[in-house]
UniProtKB/TrEMBL annotation:
All residue ranges annotated as the Penicillin-binding protein transpeptidase domain in the record: 357-666
Record's protein name: Penicillin-binding protein
Annotated signal peptide: 1-18
Lineage: Bacteria, Bacillati, Bacillota, Bacilli, Bacillales
GO CC, one annotated term: plasma membrane
């Protein structure tokens, strides 16, 4: 029995030893190697799988570190290595090499790369181990790559897309400016450095830093700063300094400067935070990026896509470079606006630098022809960079040129009255020819209103007060009573029909107009205030201009657009006012200019019609606060556009008629 047990154990031991002695095939070894390769485990590949000849030819740094650096530099992702399996009945001879076709696929920053190479495994002993080992060379990184070759990356910068107005007049273009620089051997007066630094918005230390660069030679032109082509004053001053010159250079230009500054915005050097956010999109340190306005809003369209080329540089003289992958350059899109740049400039100039905003809208298409925030800033200077001192001066400027007023919403004051009238007429509660007797400067519905009363500026308005007289004299009491007659529910529904509470889809975000903070009217007093654009009501300037378009189109309001590519005449609201009621309102608004308190708009050049408005912004502890003045107008004989304009703080300038005079300048 004992002999039988010993024999059985011996048999088992022989089987185990036979299993241990089973040789791993070259295919098994290759599969393991490729598994590590797909995981970019280069150290494991080098130490455990390369044959002695390869290790003798290539140090670990040449294999491990080089491949890792190439992957990082070229942004290699989705590496996929496979091999063509041999027939199942293949017998391997340890005396002969084992060859396998290996397929390599990957994505790089310049596009996909795909190739096939033949990989050889050799049977050999390494220390106490014997088996199949990989024979490797750099062509398994990229075909035709050799040990002494260098991999190069060329970046071809995409041209930034330009912005044009509706007539293809450029408003943001890839134009030119000047590099201001010093030729050291000719710059002999050191005392001029401070003067130059002040002119170029830099420091003496920064100038010295440029001049002390290792490559600088006495006869060379050393760039110090860039200056916009339009900055004649600075250019003329710097070139008068001996040893200082100006050389032309490519540069983003904004030909309409301040007048379109809040629309175009500007580009500037990418910040560290922006780079972190956009690195995956191909941005690099030193790139320019949209910082405000359409330059920022349309960044992805304007930027384009840089071209990239990965290639092998051969050290031997006369050797041809080998291309690996190439991504062609894609220049940014050219974007055309609905804006008329000359109309925009005319409107901006008419506002004379006063804080305010204006918008012109085509009533038949909804196209925005002008979109002004005043005062503006010079985007050319912003693009080149402002000193902290200069930026602080702009921030502390009482006129606040950095604030984009056309994005904001304001109490529209009496400019709302034609809309209130239209809602009442359509509801059947307001009869235009029916007069109301109104006496005195103030009125209240009943004693329940307590101290609250509706006031009017022109108690001399003749009785009975009908719609025409109410418009001409801008009678708050008339419109408050009409709102009370129609009721809050009808009035709110009518205002919603005119777009209150809706966000206008616009490339540059506009604050939504509101009836109130909650979108409701909580009391009769609030209803009265809202009827003449006060209370908690707010409207943005584009919407305000658009609200007057149904009076020209007999009831249709088109969606405001800013890009020419958008479809013209997209109906936003329709059936707002009948043709008969629209005609009544047009007549009344013409009379506002002829007989009312917009006399500054009663010009010979164009028969203007419109409505003024003043919104009082009371400050705590004051009997009378600041006032924003409005005028919304159009040429009644040729209503190509509706112009809405707001000027801040008109209380000492004649109120809304002051704004009417500015608006009239646009039509002149």
């Amino acid at each position: 029995m004992k002999k039988m047990i010993i024999a059985a154990l011996a048999a088992v031991l022989l089987l185990v030893l036979a299993g241990c002695n089973k040789q791993t095939t070259p295919e098994d070894r290759l599969a393991e190697y490729i598994s590590h390769w797909n995981k970019s485990e280069f150290t494991e590949m080098y130490e455990g799988y390369l044959n002695e000849g390869t290790k003798g030819a290539f140090e670990p740094a040449q294999f491990v570190e080089r491949q890792q650096k190439i992957q990082d530099d070229l942004g290699i992702e989705n590496l996929e290595v496979s091999y063509t399996a041999p027939p199942e009945d293949t017998e391997w001879n340890e005396e002969e090499p084992a060859d396998f076709p290996v397929q390599v696929k990957m994505d790089t920053i310049a596009g996909p790369v795909e190739f096939e190479q033949q990989m050889t495994l050799l049977f050999e002993e390494q220390g106490e181990e014997e088996g199949w080992f990989v024979e490797w060379n750099p062509s398994f990184i990229f075909p035709q790559l050799e040990a002494e070759d260098k991999i190069r990356i060329d970046r071809i910068k995409a041209a930034r897309g330009e912005i044009m107005d509706r007539n293809n007049v450029p408003v943001a273009i890839n134009g030119g400016g000047f590099n201001i620089g010093i030729v050291p051997e000719k710059f002999t007066d050191e005392t001029k450095k401070q003067e130059l630094a002040e002119l170029l918005n830099t420091t003496v230390e920064a100038i010295d830093g440029s001049l002390n660069q290792s490559w600088v030679q006495p006869e060379m032109f050393v760039p110090i700063a860039k200056v916009a082509r339009t900055d004649d004053k600075v250019i003329d001053a710097v070139v008068k300094i001996p040893g200082v010159g100006a050389q032309k250079t490519s540069m983003r230009e904004y030909p309409y400067g301040e007048s379109l500054s809040h629309v175009t915005g500007y580009i500037g050097s990418i910040t560290a935070e922006q780079l972190e956010e956009r690195k995956a999109d191909g941005y690099t340190a030193g790139d320019m990026i949209g910082r405000q306005g359409l330059e920022q809003a349309l960044e992805d369209r304007l930027r384009g896509k840089d071209g990239l080329k990965i290639w092998i540089e051969k050290p031997a003289e006369g050797s041809e470079p080998v291309d690996i992958a190439e991504q062609p350059v894609e220049d940014g899109e050219t974007v055309q606006l609905t804006i008329d740049a000359e109309l925009q400039k005319t409107a901006y100039d008419a506002m004379k630098g006063e804080p305010g905003t204006s918008a012109a809208v085509d009533p038949e298409t909804g196209e925005t022809l002008a979109l002004v925030s005043s005062p503006g800033f010079d985007p050319n200077r912003f693009m080149l960079g402002l000193s902290g001192e200069q930026y602080k001066a702009l921030e502390e400027d009482p006129a606040n040129p950095l604030f984009n007023r056309f994005k904001a919403a304001y109490a529209p004051g009496s400019t709302l009255k034609p809309v209130t009238a239209a809602i009442g007429m359509e509801a059947g509660t307001l009869k235009p020819a029916e007069g109301i007797t109104i006496n005195g400067e103030t009125w209240q519905k009943d004693a329940a209103w307590g101290d609250y009363k509706v006031s009017r500026l022109h108690p001399e308005a003749p009785n009975p007060v009908d719609l025409n007289i109410a418009l001409v004299y801008s009678d708050n009491i008339y419109f408050a009573q009409q709102a009370l007659n129609m009721g809050a529910e009808t009035f709110i529904a009518g205002l919603n029909d005119y777009g209150f509470g809706e966000t206008i889809e616009f490339p540059i975000g506009l604050a939504a107009s509101q009836i109130s903070n909650e979108g409701t009217i909580a009391s009769a007093g609030q209803l009265a205030d809202t009827s003449f654009g006060q209370g908690q009501m707010l409207a943005n300037i584009v919407h305000l201009a658009s609200m007057y378009t149904p009076f020209i189109t007999d009831g249709t309001m088109y969606k405001p657009t800013l890009l020419m590519e958008e479809e013209d005449g997209q109906v936003w609201k329709e059936g707002l006012v009948s043709a008969e009621n629209a005609a009544t309102l047009r007549e009344g608004m013409r009379n506002v200019v002829v007989d009312g308190y917009a006399q500054s708009a009663n010009i010979d050049e164009a028969p203007l019609a419109g409505k003024t408005g003043t919104a009082e912004l009371k400050a705590a502890g004051e009997d009378r606060g600041k006032e924003n003045g409005f005028f919304v107008t159009y040429d009644s004989a040729n209503p190509d556009f509706v112009l809405a304009m707001m000027i801040e703080n008109v209380e000492d300038n004649g109120g809304s008629d002051y704004v009417a005079g500015m608006a009239a300048e646009v039509f002149k």
